[in-house]
Design a protein that fits this description.
The chain is an alpha/beta fold. The protein has helices spanning 28-41, 52-56, 67-78, 90-111, 119-131, 133-139, 145-152, 157-169, 212-231, 236-255, 275-281, 287-294, 307-319, 322-337, 343-357, 365-389, 392-414, 421-433, 457-473, 522-539, 561-579, 595-612, 616-620, 629-639, 647-656, 662-670, 674-679; strands at 87-89, 177-183, 186-195, 271-274, 301-304, 435-439, 495-497, 502-506, 643-645. Helix content is 53%, strand content 6%.
Length: 699
């Protein structure tokens, strides 16, 4: 996944939920000074007003020393991170534009008389319920009382599992992770997946690491646990005891959870088990009843990601007192619901999240509402969004660009010295079968069965979660719908799906703040879109994970043994390169965990370059904003990662995210690309320079 805005989601402002903020106000005097500096350094060029790329340059930085800061440092200096954000940059500016458009759609729906059950009615009523701050304050914790009472009535492990399944359906992540999606080894079949989960903090390492930033997060989480139980009416002694017991339970579950880098291998995280065997191994869990409570009518087998986690969970169900389990469920219900409830409950959650994000104040309520609405029914909003935001001409531009990248990849594969002809032919077949989805779906999801009213916001979110659960449960036993999208059109993101062998490129990912698409030159667009998004995503089909899936999306080994050996050797080199980076304090990038994204970044820049070098814009060689086409291409790529991040979010990202930070996603691949060296005159002795023997070239 490209995830340009993964920075904003570290706290779990969630992957279906989204992001942040708008247009840069520019000072004309500063621009004039920047122009004069730029012209004085390029005396042979025409005097012209700087374009948006030239405006971002930090002329005090040598591009051969730190290309990221050279390309983006001027903008970063002039645009400090807002108090309500954990980071700031291009994606946040795009998201601000998207927010404003979506707000207009919601307010229009609120004020018009819509047919009951229509998309417009649901949008208008959702907006009303979530923006009704007075009503929400009066409700307090009351909307959760029926669920809290049901938890309190638990008397047996069977009751515990029944209530847990119900809570999972309503969007509360407890006990374990579950997912209904394609079988990795049979992509034509939808199956039930079970994996590790159930933790209150977003990564198992938060429970064990001893660096200062992790200790700060852990302390904040323990305080939040205590405050949550106080909010539920428990006195201080009982609340402290309950918080400690729940924390200890989660720590034991975390100990049985795999590290981030160990979740990357699809083979070692695939264990297909029939239900009879499941019941024998994990006997405390009545699986048939568990699935029935989830809504599944019949099931013969499941795919287990991390069996050792289920062993630990089974043991905890045997030995941990039911009272502790009931407190665990109550806490997770409150934690998952707090962002949709009164200010006191939200404030406690926000205070904990500050330890991870470093954000100084909460995001504006209306933006939080739009984030939640994206989670609940983003594609419904998308139907209204694309009508005015993504014309056919723009869609065609990026459709054509995908094919240019595909052609470039074909040529690279054909000329690889390290890959055998046998594997090459299979790679070319897989490449030819990659499906492209650009802009928006041809077929929209039907939200008619989703009930949204003007009652409590949290209950609308729970019903939306139940709708999504039913939506996916109904897929079991039916043909795979390969036309379906996993992101809404307005999302500033993109992804590669190995089971469908597809790249999905929502309209939002191509937006540039304050610019129409027809204002953007090809040199910039090939760097910004073709390299950092299209080339990146298509390379995921051939990274350390994606290469293990064939052209039909099935997990199988289609490589010759020596080719695998050669690939792994190159991957090991890129792992070592990124392990060297220290983005914050003494914390290094996890090269093992981030290798897939780093391979995709490098592949994307190379593919984008190959495709761009065949365009008329490249061949003409005309400068724009004082830059050659080659320079502008690499600056366009860097613009896609124009972000500054708080130290807290950088530390969290290094622990929980498979993406390297933005600066390293620019400087890392550039140091391996000869065309970059030529464009910016990088020479031995420069910090960006790597000798040929240390450069990585996979694709």
């Amino acid at each position: 996944m490209n995830e340009r805005l993964r920075i904003a989601k570290v706290i779990k402002i969630s992957l279906p939920s989204h992001l942040q903020n708008k247009l840069i106000m520019r000072n004309s005097l500063c621009f004039l000074i920047l122009v004069l500096i730029f012209v004085s350094c390029h005396t042979t060029e025409k005097k012209e007003a700087p374009d948006f790329l030239a405006e971002n340059i930090d002329t005090t930085v040598n591009p051969a020393t730190d290309f990221f800061l050279y390309a983006n440092g001027g903008w970063i200096k002039k645009n400090p991170i807002p108090a309500d954000q954990s980071a700031w940059g291009v994606g946040f500016l795009v998201q601000e534009d998207i927010y404003n458009r979506l707000r207009a759609i919601n307010e229009k729906a609120l004020n018009e008389k819509s047919e009951p059950g229509s998309v417009s009615q649901k949008i208008g009523d959702f907006w009303f319920s979530a923006m009704d701050s007075d009503g929400i304050e009066k409700q307090g914790i009351q909307p959760l009382q029926p669920q809290l009472q049901e938890i309190e009535k638990i008397e047996t492990v069977e009751d515990l599992l029944r209530v847990s399944a119900k809570l999972q359906n309503e969007g509360v992540d407890v006990l374990l992770g579950e997912d209904i999606s394609q079988d990795e080894k049979n992509s034509d079949k939808i199956v039930f997946h079970i994996y590790q989960g159930g933790l209150g903090m977003s990564n198992r390492d938060y429970y064990f690491n001893t660096d200062a930033k992790t200790l700060k997060v852990r302390k904040a989480y323990q305080t939040y646990l205590y405050n949550a139980f106080r909010s539920m009416g428990k006195d201080s002694l009982v609340a402290r005891s309950a918080a400690g017991a729940v924390y200890d339970l989660e720590t034991r579950l975390a100990k049985a959870s795999r590290k981030l880098e160990n979740l990357r291998d699809p083979d070692s995280n695939y264990h297909k088990i029939d239900l009879v065997t499941m019941q024998k191994i994990y006997f405390k869990i009545g699986w048939s009843e568990f699935f029935k409570n989830t809504g599944v009518k019949s099931l013969d087998s499941v795919i287990v990601g991390q069996p050792e986690f289920l062993v630990a969970l089974n043991q905890e169900l045997s030995k941990t007192p039911l009272g502790v389990w009931k407190n665990y469920l109550s806490f997770h219900l409150l934690k998952n619901s707090a962002r949709y409830m009164d200010q006191a409950l939200y404030k406690d959650l926000f205070t904990y999240s500050q330890s991870i994000s470093g954000v100084e104040k909460p995001k504006a309520r209306w933006k939080r509402v739009l984030d939640a609405e994206e989670t609940a029914m983003g594609e419904a909003l998308g139907q209204l969004f694309v009508k005015e935001y993504f014309p056919e001409k723009t869609k065609q531009r990026y459709n054509d660009m995908v094919e240019a990248i595909r052609d470039a990849y074909k040529e690279r594969i054909m000329h690889l010295a390290w890959m055998s002809d046998s594997t090459k032919q299979k790679a070319l077949i897989k490449l030819s079968k990659v499906t492209k989805k650009v802009g928006y779906p041809d077929k929209w999801k039907d939200f008619s069965a989703l009930v949204i009213d003007r009652g409590p916001w949290v209950l609308n979110m729970q019903r939306a979660s139940e709708w999504w659960t039913n939506y996916y449960v109904n897929k079991l036993g039916k043909p795979v719908d390969r036309t379906e999208w996993g992101m809404s059109p307005q999302t500033y993101n993109a992804y590669y799906n190995p089971s469908n062998n597809e790249i999905v490129l929502p309209a939002g990912i191509f937006i540039v703040p304050g610019k129409r698409d027809d204002e953007l030159d090809d040199a910039f667009v090939y760097g910004y879109a073709a390299a950092s998004t299209i080339g990146h995503e298509i390379t995921h089909g051939f990274d350390d994970q994606g290469r293990k899936f064939d052209e039909a999306g099935n997990l199988r080994d289609w490589w010759q043994p020596n080719d695998t050996k050669q690939f792994n050797a190159s991957a090991a080199r890129i792992i070592r390169q990124f392990n060297e980076f220290v983005p914050v304090d003494t914390l290094h990038v996890n090269g093992e965990a981030s290798q897939g994204e780093n391979i995709a970044d490098l592949g994307g820049v190379l593919l984008g370059w190959d495709a761009f070098s065949k365009t008329e814009a490249f061949k003409k060689g005309e400068k724009i904003g004082g830059f050659t086409p080659a320079q502008r291409y690499f600056l366009g790529y860097a613009y896609g990662w124009l972000y500054s991040e708080r130290k807290e979010v950088l530390a969290a990202q290094l622990m929980t995210d498979v993406h390297a930070p933005s600066k390293e996603r620019v400087n890392g691949p550039m140091a391996n690309i000869p065309a970059f060296y030529e464009a910016f005159n990088v020479k031995p002795g420069d910090k960006m320079y790597r000798p040929d023997s240390l450069r990585v070239s996979i694709w």
